[in-house]
Write a structure and sequence with these properties.
Blueprint: H1 3-15, E1 20-36, E2 39-57, E3 60-66, H2 71-87, H3 120-135, E4 140-159, E5 164-182, E6 185-195, H4 204-217, E7 227-233, H5 239-248, H6 251-256, E8 276-278, E9 301-305, E10 308-309, H7 316-322, E11 330-331, E12 339-340, E13 345-347, H8 354-361, E14 364-375, E15 381-392, E16 395-408, H9 409-413, E17 416-418, E18 428-429, E19 433-441
Parallel strand pairs: 7-14, 13-18
Antiparallel strand pairs: 1-2, 1-4, 2-3, 4-5, 5-6, 7-19, 8-9, 8-13, 9-10, 11-12, 14-15, 15-16, 16-19, 17-19
Organism: Phenylobacterium montanum
GO molecular function: metallopeptidase activity
Domain Metalloprotease TldD/E N-terminal: 21-85
Length: 443
C-alpha cells in the first residue's frame, strides 16, 4: 500500500478537525483450487485493496473502512469518520500508542514473503495429487475433496504521531479429506498444512497419505462407558487446551473482571518446568510480525515461565485501564479499535514422546479430534466433545467416539505433563499434553 496515500489520509483527517488519526492500508491477492473425486470443483480468485481510518477528537473516537481508493472516496471517508467521532461517547482509555514506545526500526528480517506465484494449473495438480494419494489408501471409500491455495498480502500502518510501518507475507496451503468405510460404518480423516514459503510445505502425496491413514484408523470406533481416566491431547490439537488461558489473560478480559485467572498474575498455575513461549520474530513463522498493530515494538517472552503466569496480554487501551504499560499484543483489522492477540506460541517439550506418555498413564484416552468446546470464563469450568483412541497397558486398543471430557481449567493446568513430540505446524504449537485424570462422559 502506498505510504504517501496513507499519510495524506491522516493529514486530511487532522485538517478536518481530528486531534489524532491513524490509517491502515491492506492489499491481498489469493488463489485457491478445490477438487473432488479427481475433478475440478471450485476456483476462487481474490484481489482486494482496502483502507481503514481511525480518528480521535478528545477522548471520542470513530473508525471507518472502504475499498474505493479514489480521491473523492477518501475525502468522504475522512468526512464520515470525523463526523462520527464528534457524536461518539467518550472513551477514557482511547488513543494512539504514545510516540515514545513506537517501534522505529530497523525491523528484523522475518523472511515471510515468498515471491513464488503458482498458477491455477499448478495448484490443481497439487490438490489432485493429495486427494488421489488419500483415495489410494486401502479402506478409503470416498473423498470430501482436496485443495491447494496461495495468498500474498501487504499491510501498512501510518499514525499522526510519527509511525509508519509495513508488513508483507505470503501463504501456501495443501489439504485433503477422505472417508473410510467398512461394514460397521464410515469415518472421516483429513490433513492440511500451511506455510509462508512453498518449499516448506510437505509434498501433496505426504499430506494425502496422512489423510487416508487417519480416516482408516478411525474405523470401528465405539462408545465407552462414562469414567474418570488419564487423557492425552494429541500434539496436533493440544494448543486447544491452552487457548482458553490466552483469553483469560487478555487485558480487556482482565479489565472487565471476566476471567478465571484475573487474580493469578505472578502465581504458579502450571507445574514447575512448564513453559509457554512466544516469539513474534520467528523466521517464516505463521504468526510472525515485526511490530504489533498499534506500531509498538514486540519481543520474545515466556507467557508461562516455570509454571508461573508472567504477564497479561495488553494493548494500549487495556494497559491504561489497568495502570500498566502495553505488552505489544495489539491486534486489529481495518476498522474498529484494536483487540489483543498472540504471535507464535510454543509449549516447550518434555521428555516423553506420546507412546511414553501412554506407558506412564497405563490406561486412558488419546484425544485426536475436538469439537463444540464450552467454557465458563469466570470459573474456568470447561468441557469439549472429543473422539480418539482408548489405550490399555500403555498401548493403543481401539478407536472411540461420541465422548465428552470435562473439568476445571485451573485444576487441569496444574496437572499438565508436556510430551516431547513438538511439531511446528502453525502459529501455535504444543507437544502432546497429558492430564492424569479427567471426567469422561460416554454412553
Amino acid at each position: 500500500m502506498d505510504e504517501n496515500l496513507l499519510q495524506d489520509l491522516v493529514s486530511a483527517a487532522l485538517k478536518a478537525g481530528a486531534d489524532a488519526a491513524e490509517a491502515v492500508g491492506a492489499e491481498r491477492q489469493s488463489l485457491s483450487i478445490s477438487v473432488r473425486m479427481g475433478k475440478l470443483e471450485e476456483v476462487e480468485r481474490e484481489e482486494a485493496r482496502d483502507l481503514g481510518l481511525r480518528v480521535f477528537i478528545g477522548k471520542r473516537q470513530a473508525s471507518v473502512s472502504g475499498s474505493d481508493l479514489s480521491a473523492a472516496a477518501r475525502a468522504r471517508l475522512v468526512e464520515r469518520a470525523v463526523a462520527m467521532a464528534r457524536l461518539a461517547p467518550e472513551e477514557p482509555y482511547a488513543g494512539l500508542a504514545p510516540s515514545e514506545i513506537l517501534s522505529r526500526g530497523p525491523w528484523p528480517e522475518l523472511d515471510l514473503f515468498d515471491p513464488t506465484e503458482p498458477t491455477a494449473a499448478e495448484l490443481e495438480d497439487q490438490a489432485l495429487a493429495a486427494e488421489s494419494t488419500a483415495l489410494a489408501t486401502p479402506g478409503v471409500t470416498n473423498s470430501e475433496g482436496g485443495s491447494a491455495g496461495w495468498s500474498s498480502s501487504a499491510w501498512r500502518l501510518v499514525t499522526s504521531n510519527g509511525f509508519s510501518g509495513p508488513h508483507a507475507a505470503s501463504g501456501f496451503s495443501i489439504s485433503a479429506s477422505v472417508v473410510a468405510g467398512d461394514e460397521n460404518g464410515m469415518e472421516r480423516g483429513g490433513e492440511g498444512r500451511s506455510q509462508r514459503w512453498q518449499a516448506d510445505l510437505p509434498t501433496p502425496e505426504a499430506i494425502g497419505a496422512e489423510a487416508g491413514k487417519r480416516a482408516v484408523s478411525r474405523l470401528g470406533a465405539r462408545k465407552i462407558a462414562s469414567t474418570t481416566a488419564p487423557v492425552i491431547f494429541e500434539n496436533r490439537l493440544a494448543m486447544s487446551l491452552i487457548g482458553p488461558m490466552l483469553g483469560a489473560i487478555a487485558g480487556p478480559a482482565i479489565a472487565r473482571g471476566a476471567s478465571f485467572l484475573k487474580d493469578r498474575l505472578g502465581e504458579q498455575i502450571f507445574p514447575a518446568g512448564f513453559v509457554v513461549a512466544e516469539d513474534p520474530h520467528r523466521r517464516r513463522g505463521l504468526g510472525s510480525s515485526p511490530f504489533d498493530d498499534e506500531g509498538v515494538a514486540n519481543h520474545a517472552r515466556n507467557l508461562i515461565d516455570d509454571g508461573v503466569l508472567t504477564t497479561w496480554l495488553l494493548n494500549c487501551s487495556s494497559a491504561k485501564q489497568l495502570g500498566l504499560t502495553t505488552t505489544g499484543h495489539a491486534s486489529r483489522g481495518l476498522a474498529g479499535s484494536p483487540g489483543v492477540s498472540t504471535t507464535n506460541l510454543t509449549v516447550r517439550p518434555g521428555t516423553l514422546d506420546q507412546a511414553g506418555l501412554m506407558r506412564d498413564a497405563g490406561e486412558g484416552l488419546l484425544v485426536t479430534s475436538m469439537f463444540g468446546p464450552s467454557l465458563n470464563p469466570h470459573t474456568g469450568d470447561w468441557s469439549v466433545g472429543v473422539s480418539g483412541f482408548w489405550f490399555e497397558k500403555g498401548e493403543m486398543a481401539y478407536p472411540v467416539t461420541e465422548i465428552t471430557v470435562a473439568g476445571n481449567l485451573v485444576d487441569i493446568y496444574q496437572r499438565l505433563v508436556a510430551g516431547s513430540d513438538l511439531e511446528i505446524r502453525g502459529a501455535s504449537n504444543s507437544p502432546s499434553l497429558l492430564v492424569d485424570a479427567l471426567a469422561i462422559a460416554g454412553r
